[in-house]
Amino acid sequence: MAILTAARELLAEAGYAELTIEAIAARAGVGKQTIYRWWRGKGAIILDALMETGDNVEPLPDSGDLRADLVAVVRATVAELADPRLSATTRALTIETLSNDELAEQVRDRVLRPQMEAIKDRLRTGPLRPEINLDQAVELLIGPPYHRWMLRTGPLTDEYADGVVDLALAAFQK
Amino acid sequence: MAILTAARELLAEAGYAELTIEAIAARAGVGKQTIYRWWRGKGAIILDALMETGDNVEPLPDSGDLRADLVAVVRATVAELADPRLSATTRALTIETLSNDELAEQVRDRVLRPQMEAIKDRLRTGPLRPEINLDQAVELLIGPPYHRWMLRTGPLTDEYADGVVDLALAAFQK
């Protein structure tokens, strides 16, 4: 759809702070009213743009090697965060989540929960200590990279991703 | 200072999205030009307002019991995030960090690094496995609560804080 494509292009080119409904309308060749008929604001457009790219969450592979499977997903997450173009949407949605309660619930339920559930499903086959809370286990894998990305406190590399997995596994399998 | 006090009050009352330079100027009884002479925008004002409240980072106590000391700091962090009024400033600074590169560096260096260094100092006396990377260790304690707060994926309680510490300690002390 032209509007969502325009929104994605502009986001990658100029960033979220610069993104306006006017610019999206101009790029898509429609009037602003057309956009406001369907979306409340730019956050809602970006959310739909993200969902439309088919960024559907696939189940994690289960190779039988928990470390290898977690390294694959954490490396991919860290690489996406490290790339300013790829992480532009995540940045935009995080800003909206912090600013807008209604959108926050949608981002959580449509984007975040499916990603977290996919990791939980892989953790469920373990091996993990039986008393591990799976919600907290997922946070241990993705909370630190997210924190580091958001607050720019350190490099986002494969080596870092592997270190996150190794620390988490030490906790899960003590 | 009247401007910083006005900014803090308005932030607590109305939230960051609603906060404007006009409103801060009106509440402080000054002209907008006075504000723009000293600050570039509302993010910079909030950062100074936060620094002014004397929210200086104290060294963590070292009781000799690592779990007790970490439970104290993680519970306090989680309680602050769980309180909408107390976390309004953190919310505002996180939004600005994601939107504004220049401010991001200031937030990191003036607010975040001192907090993380205080936790690192306590971790340094351990006991921890010697190969643990202290930057990653701190992220393991504060990344998950921050992620949960930001993305609203679960409750922020003392029980949760204790669980974060126990998982992290299992990783640190395996």
UniProtKB/TrEMBL annotation, chains A, B:
Q: Which UniProt keywords apply?
A: DNA-binding, Transcription, Transcription regulation
User: Highest taxon of the source?
Assistant: Bacteria
InterPro entries in UniProt: Cro/C1-type_HTH (IPR001387), Homeodomain-like_sf (IPR009057), HTH-type_TetR-like_transc_reg (IPR050109), HTH_TetR (IPR001647), Tet_transcr_reg_TetR-rel_C_sf (IPR036271), TetR_C (IPR011075)
Entry keyword annotation includes 4Fe-4S: no
Which SUPFAM superfamilies does UniProt cross-reference here? Answer: Homeodomain-like (SSF46689), Tetracyclin repressor-like, C-terminal domain (SSF48498)
**DNA-binding region spans which residues?**
20-39
What residues does the HTH tetR-type domain cover? Answer: 1-57
| GO MF annotation, one | DNA-binding transcription factor activity
Which PANTHER family does its entry note?
HTH-TYPE TRANSCRIPTIONAL REGULATOR RUTR, TETR-FAMILY TRANSCRIPTIONAL REGULATOR
Q: What protein name does the entry list?
A: Putative TetR-family transcriptional regulator
Q: Which organism is it from?
A: Actinoplanes friuliensis DSM 7358
